[in-house]
């Protein structure tokens, strides 16, 4: 497959850049933070995204979506990474839509997908329980009760948890806490009895929450995929999210690089434009190379998700690992080459380094994915 | 697309029938590379494979048929590459002629020059050397001083080149010479083709830290060059030289990522796994994993840059990025292979042992323009940072 975007994807990219630059630039995130916004995202912007079809980018047409695939979904995420636009796009349009369209029953699809596509429902994936990502370690229990299940336990680092209408929760139906088998995915309405969600105040000013489940009763219809066989679909949903995050980080890294290159052409010291200093030229040029590698592996991962989702794990793993490293380098170098001004809250770079830190940690950091990569490669 | 599918089926059948079994094994080292030329010692399967591929025009698939290629379109050439990769077929022939001189001649040569020089390159009959660097013209290549005088019906070349890779095994050499000593330095250079089989051209191998002697000093003492072998316009050789360099850089940049055995596999074989199934050296395992990930990202980048070029997008200066990253990566790869091989790698062994390869890779970020020079180009041409 050619590693250049086709016309549709290019048009989408231009449209996304135009819209986000005008309607949801970094200043929007700053304002959400400064105003202490309860939602943590702008509902009007979200509605506009739905209108443009972004919320339905992975939803089949039969369910009201535009079904453009992962490359398109990634193009949008990448542009959002440039502007740091806060929205439940990844948790809903990428991960929620992947979960339901690929693993949902007909009834689950008909109930949720049209709402996701219309931007009327937000989903959140509740997976981690400890401070480090580990989807196979599941302490939340789901015991059979009546013709359904009763859930108990606690999840943390749940992106968009407090604004979600529906939570996708991994729980243990069999086996010990670290077993790969015996995990089941449940669709749990956010307002179900026994569910309490507490928003966390995050470094990146974005949404994350902890979710406590206390005797939450769900019917058997709430099971997504197979009982005891939840890790595979969970990994697929996570991979969609990881690829989306990698695309987002790629956008953020590109923005950091471009902002820095512009500053190097502007700022003067010692009577010279600082961009004439070879020490800085070489750092910027090295960063450019890393950012280019990041772009390529992200595109490769997205293309693989479209072409053969069941074989995409390795590329997605590589992409998440690489972008974790590249985007952090970009943010660090951006601050250093801006000097003192890069350290000020007034300047936007700080928002980037903070968001990149969170995106890096979410669904496995670069270390996690390098280790996973080695395991997949059998060493 | 149906056409491509038919082509793919045809290629697949032909490769299945014609690629010798020995040529489907991964290359163990640089010693397995087929360079061609009058002095090259082919193994039987190498020669068979080369001749069969050359007869199809598939050693240089995108070159026009009349010049020894197969006139394949880019998508067709990609199909051929993919099908060769599928059966792990080795590249039948690699050479400076294919990578460097060919593209330059195709762009700047006359029809007669192409007819004379390209088919022997495609068939692996003539091996070319690159006469660019001089003792006092390295990174600052345009300050070169090798002199070329017009003697009416021919040219006379005098001077010295250095670091000329494989000059002692080459048949012909493309040389950058000064044809105008008064003009600004970039505007007095010409690009000329010289037959090395003459008394006026001599070479002296230089021994490297790897113990090998892959490059030479090359001396021109009243060497004769034919008039019709001047490529491009007189005094405009710098354009040809630069164009050729972009091809050289992409080639060098891609060296460490091709059909090599994956690092993880080699390390497992050498070090083994612990009880948990992980490489028994945990720190090395981490480094290898990160490097393999970077390797994947780099290969994807080579692919993307090539696809963008086909689509008329992107910047030609990206060849500097590929050269910089690919060579630094290759150095890193061989450091890890040394770590993995441990003390056994520290004995001088066969000509293709890991220690020699490790040492050889140190030159990757020097040859074809150093890493620092590539970073300068990226800063200037891509990031558009001002010069001092
Ligand atoms: C293995 C190998 C094979 C080669 N094969 C060939 C061949 O076939 N034909 C051929 O013609 N040549 C060949 N070369 C020569 C090669 O092109 C030169 O070595 C190279 O261009 C560097 O020139 P130099 O060695 O004179 O180093 P110098 O230019 O003297 O560089 C010394 C150091 O200074 C740095 N430097 C120089 N200028 C700058 C600058 N402006 N900014 C920052 N740093 C700078 C360099 O990066 C380097 O670190 C080969 C070299 C090697 C190592």
What this model shows, in words?
The complex is a heterodimer of chains A (about 375) and B (about 400). The radius of gyration of chain A is 21 Å and the shape is globular. Chain A has helices spanning about 5-25, 25-35, 45-50, 70-85, 90-105, 105-115, 230-265, 280-305, 315-340, 350-360, 365-375; strands at about 125, 140-145, 150-160, 165-170, 185-190, 195-200, 210-220, 225, 270, 270-275. Chain A folds into 3 domains: about 5-120, Butyryl-Coa Dehydrogenase, subunit A, domain 1 (Orthogonal Bundle); about 125-230, Beta Barrel (Butyryl-CoA Dehydrogenase, subunit A, domain 2), CATH 2.40.110; about 230-375, Up-down Bundle (Butyryl-CoA Dehydrogenase, subunit A, domain 3), CATH 1.20.140. Chain A is an alpha+beta fold and about 375 residues long. Chain A contains 11 helices and 10 strands. Chain B is an alpha+beta fold and about 400 residues long. Chain B has 3 domains: about 5-95, Orthogonal Bundle (Butyryl-Coa Dehydrogenase, subunit A, domain 1), CATH 1.10.540; about 130-235, Butyryl-CoA Dehydrogenase, subunit A, domain 2 (Beta Barrel), CATH 2.40.110; about 255-380, Butyryl-CoA Dehydrogenase, subunit A, domain 3. Chain B has helices at about 1-20, 45-55, 75-85, 95-110, 110-120, 235-255, 265-270, 280-310, 320-340, 355-360, 370-380; strands spanning about 130, 145-150, 155-165, 170-180, 190-195, 200-205, 215-225, 230. Chain B has a 4-stranded mixed β-sheet with strand order 1-4-5-8. A 4-stranded antiparallel β-sheet of chain B has the order 2-3-7-6, with no helix packed on it. In chain B, β6 and β7 (about 215-225) form a beta hairpin. Chain B is globular. The interface of A and B includes residues 273, 277, 300 and 370 of A. Flavin-adenine dinucleotide binds near residues 131, 133, 215, 369 and 370 of chain B.
